[in-house]
Amino acid sequence: MNGQITSDPLSVLEHLATARNTGSCALVVLVSVEGPASRSPGTLMAVRDNGEYVGSLSNGCLESDVVSQALETMATHQVRRIRYGAGSDYLDIQLPCGGAVDLMIIPDPSPTWLDRAMTCLHNRKRWDLDLRDLLPEKLALAEPYPRIQYQPRLQLAICGRGTEPMALAHLAQSSGFGVKVYLPGSEEVARLAAQGIAAEIISPTAFDGASLDNRTAFVAMFHDHDYEIPILAKALASNAFYIGAMGSHRTHEARLAALRNLGHNTAELNRIHGPIGLVGPMKDPQRLAISVLAEILGEESPQIQTV
């Protein structure tokens, strides 16, 4: 049994769509949680008919049995609801945290439904899951299921030059962020592109902040701080949930003064984190990257919510 651990809903849906095109599959939804648990309601998992899965519903306590249950639903074409933990019929499967979880296993969700869900998240729009759309009428009417809202994947846009943006880009990508790096030099762009990280050449006047939505963090990492001012001005006009800029306290004061001279008010300037990082000051690029990513995650709103 091969598994890929991810908490990203879009990755799970993409795996389902691929599996649906070649065979049978099942979507597993964590419907509810009682007491302590390692995952939140709305967490998704995809299971293929060969036993491969993408997603994670626990810290390894449940996945093997969930795969077996999912394979049975594919054979019977019947939706199945399962409870693990306190009050479960599966007494041999215990949750060390002491809580309980309820799962819904839905075999072969329709391609139309999958396309609609993936389109929302690909277009960086919120996707609302109403479980009743996937359940037989009798089961759909049996209880008031929560509606689950999924936000797009976190994105990180980095503008800069040198080793710092490189280190942050690699750490963010390995942590599940969508990453885009904007660099002044073609050699750095080619190096990142060869490593599978999206990058493009920019100039201060050419940078467009329109793609910085409310699930995107923006970080400026320049040593030439005059270069960053027009770029930061465009970032301030965006909906980015986090804006940060590298440099000392003195540099940050000069940065704010320059932006103030361009007409930005105090509320706008207060959006800029500087010096960046949860812990500082950091001179090492890798440690700075860890510190910055920690600060960004501290500002993030939940990706999955039940309403």
TrEMBL record:
Organism: Marinobacter lipolyticus SM19
Record-annotated XdhC Rossmann domain positions: 156-296
InterPro entries found in the cross-reference section: MoCofactor_Util/Proc (IPR052698), XdhC_CoxI (IPR003777), XdhC_Rossmann_dom (IPR027051)
Protein name per Swiss-Prot or TrEMBL: Xanthine dehydrogenase accessory factor
Annotated ranges, domain XdhC- CoxI: 22-85
